[in-house]
Design a protein that fits this description.
The protein has 568 residues and is mainly α. It contains 22 helices and two strands. The protein has a two-stranded antiparallel ribbon with strand order 1-2. Helix 6 (116-123) runs antiparallel to helix 7 and helix 6 (116-123) crosses helix 19.
Length: 568
């Protein structure tokens, strides 16, 4: 199988999905209106609510939702063969992820930028909201702790990525000033920012930073983990325009350049896909493809984390409601392209099937390392980029994406902590809420030992929890649409599929954790499963009520005004 076929077919499907299906959703389902007063204007505060150019916001949104997951998930899932992974990524991106992300963004914008957890209280009920917040908190805890470990491991294993990783922060701060203070044009800022970032990559490849075995009494990995959390804590409270927006925008451009290099190398070298289309001889201990494929590949097909970002930060920065199509749906397409690139890199980046099988000796093997190795090999063959530089480019891309997701994740978890405290009658300021988030995350990360390995303790539940949250987010969107008397089938089909697969996977994992006597994950699995079933019951009731008695019927699209915004 020639990998060029996978690349061309996959990219073409996603582009058509954006050109056709997203237009249908924007016009017929969500009915986006250019004159609707968005929260960024109505509640503008210069910190979280900031009207933002749609291209800059797309970069912030895209890199926040992407992280390492659209690389790790597909790179692990190809153990079942490239065909199941390819089909789920392409179909999932077009009909599941794009619709979900756009829907969550629309729902939040129509409710003054409120989070999806808060919206569940309005559209599903107070009990559902409380359980929703529990699931969201656990998911964000998994993301923040695990990504800190992943980034630290990459900085240690690929020391050439250290300089561009931390230098990118300085570039982002300068880009933020150039856009908002100096009023430079966006094309000029883009060129300067990308040139600066790739100059740092070349510098990092020339001067790798290798830490000693012990730094301030900590191992190299543990030191990087602590530094990452301290940085994320600071980044989560500074104005979003000063660091997160410009950092994510430049990273988004960097990713598309990196993907351009990878896909260009595929077209030039036309490597053969050595992995089987369907692997009938998976290693012993590999779980069943159904339902685990659909929770192993989360980001890159559909992801509940996207709904948190859409409603938590992106909705507060949307300049026009019609920008949601580009930011939300095309953000999902960008992640789908990254996931497709990961599939190609990990199935066509090896010379022989024996080389591939040597990497995929057990389930959960591969991951970022396989992506960097396979992608670097393809770039070397296609464009002649030296292996060391190829590895630096791909490793830096993975690190920066994981870091931007961690930045946003800490900020979002701070929102959740403040919201939960508010429900209990306690008002927490940003600083105290951030400290609580960092203490909990660091406690989990170092709870299993000084090496920080605890950050991966509850990661096995990430996929199921993430997909479950996607289904619950879609239930909120479905209730909103039903209340307005609008078509809801494009939401209901993915909603039912994702919830069935997520609950099925939770039950399967329950048996695995019991057999392995992993009591921590067993208890968490039960908690998440009970919370999920409870919210599902509440959501079904809310949908039935909305179907029988639409409260905000608007069958005919009408121009919206600021007054209507306050009433919705």
């Amino acid at each position: 199988m020639n990998s060029v076929v996978l690349a061309v077919v996959g990219v073409a499907m996603m582009i058509l999905g954006y050109a056709l299906y997203s237009k249908f959703l924007a016009r017929r389902i969500y009915r986006l209106q250019p004159d609707f007063e968005t929260p960024s204007h109505e509640l503008r505060d210069g910190v979280d609510y900031v009207p933002t150019n749609k291209y800059v916001l797309w970069g912030h949104h895209f890199t926040s939702v992407a992280g390492a997951a659209p690389i790790v998930g597909p790179a692990v899932a190809v153990i079942w063969g490239w065909l199941p992974a390819f089909l789920w990524v392409t179909i999932g991106t077009i009909f599941f992820a794009g619709m979900h992300d756009l829907g969550a963004l629309w729902a939040s914008v129509r409710n003054k930028g409120r989070s999806i957890g808060s919206l569940s209280g309005r559209y599903i009920g107070a009990r559902g909201r409380n359980l929703f917040l529990v699931v969201i908190f656990l998911l964000l805890l998994m993301v923040n702790a695990a990504f800190a470990v992943v980034i630290a491991n990459l900085l240690v294993s690929t020391p050439t990525a250290v300089i561009p990783t931390w230098g990118a922060i300085v570039v982002a701060l300068l880009v933020g000033q150039a856009i908002y203070r100096l009023k430079w044009s966006l094309p000029l800022v883009s060129v300067v920012g990308v040139v600066a970032l790739y100059s740092l990559i070349l510098l990092g490849d020339r001067f790798p930073v290798v830490l000693p075995d012990t730094v301030l009494g900590l191992s190299a990995n543990a030191f990087w983990i602590v530094v990452l959390f301290l940085y994320a804590g600071v980044a989560s409270v500074v104005p979003v325009w000063a660091l997160l927006q410009p950092r994510d925008y430049i990273n988004g451009l960097q990713l598309f350049i990196g993907l351009g290099l990878l896909y260009g190398s595929v077209l030039l070298s036309a490597p053969t896909v050595v992995a089987p289309a369907y692997n009938e001889a998976v290693p012993e201990g590999t779980p069943s493809l159904v339902p685990l494929l659909f929770v192993t590949i989360a980001c890159g097909a559909i992801s509940g984390f996207h709904g948190i970002v859409s409603s938590g930060t992106s909705a507060k920065q949307l300049d026009k409601e019609t920008d949601a199509r580009f930011v939300g749906y095309f953000g999902a397409v960008g992640e789908g392209l990254l996931a497709l690139g990961a599939i190609i890199a990990t199935t066509a980046g090896y010379r022989t099937i024996a080389d591939w099988e040597a990497v995929y000796t057990a389930f959960n093997q591969g991951g970022v390392a396989a992506f960097v190795q396979g992608g670097g090999s393809i770039m070397n063959a296609g464009l002649g980029i030296p292996p060391s530089l190829s590895a630096t480019i791909l490793a830096t891309m993975a690190v920066l994406f994981a870091a931007t997701t961690m930045d946003t994740g800490v900020r979002l978890q701070r929102f959740v902590v403040q919201e939960a405290a508010h429900l209990m009658g306690v008002n927490l300021n940003k600083a105290l809420a951030t400290v609580i988030v960092l203490v909990v995350a660091l406690g989990l990360t170092f709870g299993a030992g000084a090496d920080g390995s605890g950050g991966m303790l509850i990661w096995p539940l990430f996929g199921t929890t993430n997909q479950l949250l996607a289904g619950l987010t879609l239930s909120v969107v479905a209730v909103m649409l039903m209340r307005k008397g609008r078509p809801v089938l494009p939401v209901l089909v993915p909603l039912v599929f994702v919830l069935v697969m997520s609950v099925y996977a939770l039950v399967v994992q329950l048996g695995q954790f019991w057999a392995a006597e992993n009591w921590l994950l067993l208890v968490l699995d039960v908690v998440i499963l009970v919370a999920a079933l409870w919210v599902i019951v509440e959501a079904v009731g809310a949908m039935a009520s909305a179907r029988k008695n639409p409260q905000d019927r608007d069958d005919q699209p009408q121009p919206s005004t600021a007054g209507e915004n306050r009433s919705l």
